[in-house]
């Protein structure tokens, strides 16, 4: 299938149009016309080579919303015209204990990311959602509920599941006290989801400049990490803290905020972290943990949860040819919304 997308041709080049071929349908494949593609901070890290060398040219994008246009002969879950999504992974071994437990993101053989990885069958590099079409095996395609606005649903497939999974793992519910570090793409979804689960949510940030925004999302307000007295007063006041900061930083300032047996979960930064002081952890049996997206079953759960509670990410819709400007803005700071590309603006002849 001939298609076109925006690709990085090197770590220091601007994104540019790229014509390429999607694979012919295998028996269990679903072909999708991509309507909207979310822009994630990890896309920027990847194309810049921050996480190591990449197989350029590389088409990023793992927040994909579209409609089915064709299915393979063994596909039973989807048909042409269905509203569907594809998230951060497109394959796994399907045989190990983690895959059987619906935790494909922790596949013992390694899950196959939506872009930048060898396909498990033919070894070709997977290419992501900054394109007009994608072909994905049925088991990794998700149903988009009718109640969700397709133009705003894409970030649920990364920002949504990345924050939903630890909220579920640590059993957040009515009465839970949750802190969210950062109010960017991940952070604003963490607030919305935790509030919908019944938690009391506080945003943790360097300043209170986004306090009105935090409150509009359902948070009680902002605790400024630079306010020494306020931080002392908040000691032991959280059961769970989600750390959504996407750059290297020190968690020591936040760990005393956890109550006994509380957990700080890192979901933002991928890579080195600053050294931290162990005393607050020892003195309160506190934990620092990590969490990686969620399995396909749980990703469907967050889509259904968002539909039930009318939760949509805060999105700015852009044209595909505006991707470089969006990357420039993202590189300068943590924006409090997600960019989503309207792929109808890209023609095959571009």
CATH topology value of the largest domain:
Quinone Oxidoreductase, Chain A, domain 1
Number of strands: 17
Q: Approximately what portion of the residues adopt beta-strand conformation? A: 25-35%
Mean pLDDT: 95
* Distance N to C terminus: 16 Å
The CATH class assignment of the largest domain is Alpha Beta
H/E series? EEEHEEEHEEEHHEHEHEHEEHEHEHE
What does this structure look like?
- Helix 6 links the parallel strand 11 and strand 12.
- The protein has 2 domains: 188 residues, Medium-chain alcohol dehydrogenases, catalytic domain (Quinone Oxidoreductase, Chain A, domain 1, Alpha-Beta Complex); 131 residues, NAD(P)-binding Rossmann-like Domain (Rossmann fold, 3-Layer(aba) Sandwich), CATH 3.40.50.720.
- Helix 4 crosses helix 5 and helix 4 crosses helix 9.
- The mean pLDDT is 95.
- The chain is globular, with a radius of gyration of 20 Å.
- With 350 residues, it is an alpha/beta fold.
- It is 23% helix and 25% strand.
- The chain starts with a strand and ends in an 8-residue tail after the last strand.
- The strands form 4 sheets. Strands 3, 4, 5, 8, 9, 16 and 17 form a 7-stranded mixed beta sheet that branches. The chain has a 6-stranded parallel beta sheet with strand order 12-11-10-13-14-15.
- It has 10 helices and 17 strands.
Short précis:
The chain is 23% helix and 25% strand. The chain is α/β, with parallel strands linked by helices and 350 residues long.
Distinctive features:
350 residues; alpha/beta; Quinone Oxidoreductase, Chain A, domain 1; Rossmann fold; 2 domains; seven-stranded mixed sheet; six-stranded parallel sheet; 10 helices; 17 strands; 23% helix; 25% strand
């Amino acid at each position: 299938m001939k298609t076109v997308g925006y690709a990085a041709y090197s770590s220091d080049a601007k994104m540019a149009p790229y014509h390429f071929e999607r694979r012919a349908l295998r028996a269990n494949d679903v072909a999708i016309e991509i309507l909207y593609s979310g822009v994630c901070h990890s896309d920027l890290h990847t194309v810049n080579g921050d996480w190591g060398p990449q197989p350029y040219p590389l088409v990023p994008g793992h927040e994909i919303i579209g409609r089915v246009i064709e299915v393979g002969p063994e596909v039973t879950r989807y048909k042409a015209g269905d509203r569907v999504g594809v998230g951060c992974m497109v394959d796994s071994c399907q045989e190990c204990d983690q895959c059987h437990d619906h935790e494909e993101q922790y596949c013992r053989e390694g899950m196959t990311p939506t872009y930048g990885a060898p396909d498990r069958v033919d070894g070709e590099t997977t290419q992501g959602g900054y394109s007009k079409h994608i072909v994905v095996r049925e088991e990794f395609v998700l149903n988009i509920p009718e109640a969700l606005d397709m133009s705003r649903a894409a970030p649920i497939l990364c920002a949504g599941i990345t924050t939903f999974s630890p909220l579920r793992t640590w059993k957040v519910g009515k009465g839970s006290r949750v802190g969210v570090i950062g109010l960017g793409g991940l952070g604003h979804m963490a607030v919305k989801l935790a509030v919908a689960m019944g938690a009391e949510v506080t945003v943790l940030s360097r300043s209170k400049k986004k306090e009105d925004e935090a409150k509009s999302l359902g948070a009680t307000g902002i605790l400024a990490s630079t306010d020494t007295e306020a931080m002392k007063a908040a000691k032991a006041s959280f059961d769970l803290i989600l750390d959504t900061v996407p750059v290297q930083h020190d968690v020591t300032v936040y760990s005393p905020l956890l109550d006994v047996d509380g957990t700080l979960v890192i979901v933002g930064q991928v890579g080195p972290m600053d050294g931290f002081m162990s005393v607050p952890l020892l003195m309160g049996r506190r934990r620092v943990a990590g969490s990686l997206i969620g399995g396909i079953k749980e990703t469907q759960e967050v889509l259904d949860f968002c539909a039930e509670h009318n939760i949509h990410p805060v999105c700015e819709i852009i044209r595909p040819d505006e991707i470089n400007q969006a990357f420039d803005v993202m590189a300068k700071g943590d924006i409090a919304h997600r960019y989503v590309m309207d792929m109808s603006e890209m023609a095959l002849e571009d």
